[in-house]
Design goal:
The chain is 30% helix and 35% strand. The strands form 3 sheets. Strands 1, 4, 5, 6, 7, 8, 9 and 10 form an 8-stranded mixed sheet that branches. It has a two-stranded antiparallel sheet with strand order 2-3. The longest helix has 20 residues. The radius of gyration is 18 Å and the shape is globular.
């Protein structure tokens, strides 16, 4: 698996990262969602650089222009609910894309421990296609692995891109160890060093789903 860290270079990308982390700016859910969309758009632009292109002749009012265009539009997949704004940003750029949605959640036991429970997947066939699976946070890495495994039941993609805004060091290690296919690339905004005992990234930003859509009642 290849790993690309977008936030390692100076760009406006890091401005949006700083805003989704900021506890003051986080009080505005609309801005939080908008910043995730902006990050998704930048991820889409970077991923577009490694996709396949062909020369297309476009008729203009004054003649014919030869333009390099995508051979194939990707399938955009995300893990509900936190992934929706990030996926929308990707969709703003790849606006001809098919879409897939994965439902997964934390299921707690009596001791307060949890595991990731896969519940539902809606997806087109993925045979021979480029797939972009996005989720804002890569904490333990288990949600991303479960999402990836679920998608692979829908066909064999030509290329898979995993997109996360903020990852923990442990999450990156887990995913690169458990998803070993050569056609997979992991795209990361920033990598943070620690996690809490409940698998929240530190310093991270908190719960992306709650910040985007409001607090929920966890099922313990």
């Amino acid at each position: 698996m290849k790993v690309n860290i977008i936030g390692g270079l100076n760009s406006v990308f890091n401005q949006f990262i700083s805003e989704i982390r900021c506890e003051v700016i986080q009080k505005d859910p609309m801005r939080f969602r908008k910043n995730l969309q902006r990050l998704g758009e930048i991820f889409a632009y970077e991923i577009s650089k490694v996709m396949d292109y062909e020369i297309t002749e476009i008729k203009t009012p004054l003649g014919i222009a030869k333009v390099s265009t995508l051979v194939q539009h990707p399938v955009l997949a995300t893990i509900l609910r936190a992934g929706l704004p990030l996926q929308q940003g990707l969709l703003n750029i790849f606006d001809h894309a098919e879409n897939a949605f994965i439902s997964a959640y934390r299921k707690y036991d009596a001791a307060g421990e949890f595991h990731i429970e896969f519940e539902y997947l809606a997806s087109p066939s993925l045979d021979g296609k480029v797939v972009i699976l996005s989720d804002p946070m890569l904490a333990s890495g288990s949600s991303m692995e479960i999402g990836y495994r679920a998608l692979m039941e829908k066909g064999t993609p030509k290329q898979v891109h995993l997109v996360v805004v903020i990852a923990s060091t442990q999450g990156v290690e887990y995913v690169t160890k458990h998803i070993t296919a050569e056609n997979v690339t992991l795209w990361i905004g920033a990598v943070d060093p620690d996690m809490t005992h409940l698998s929240y990234i530190v310093p991270g930003l908190g719960d992306a789903g709650d910040l985007a859509f409001g607090a929920k009642i966890d099922s313990h």
